[in-house]
Design a protein that fits this description.
Blueprint: H1 2-8, H2 10-17, H3 34-46, H4 50-60
């Protein structure tokens, strides 16, 4: 979901999943490669506390 959010922009993703919220996150799919997006998300995730990383790993089956 995070890759999609960055690629297509927040509002497009929220609309697709039916979340009645407004997002100002622009789409970066025309600017960033998939590798760029993965690197950025990897960096952001590296700043998460261990507890949150463990929860995400469990949710993602990693």
């Amino acid at each position: 979901m995070l890759k999609d959010y960055v690629r297509r922009g927040g509002q497009a993703v929220l609309d697709d999943i039916g979340v009645p919220m407004t997002s100002g996150m622009p789409a970066f799919g025309e600017i960033l490669t998939d590798g760029d997006i993965a690197a950025i998300l990897g960096f952001i995730k590296s700043t998460w506390p261990d507890r949150i990383r463990a929860i995400q790993a469990e949710r993602n089956g990693s």
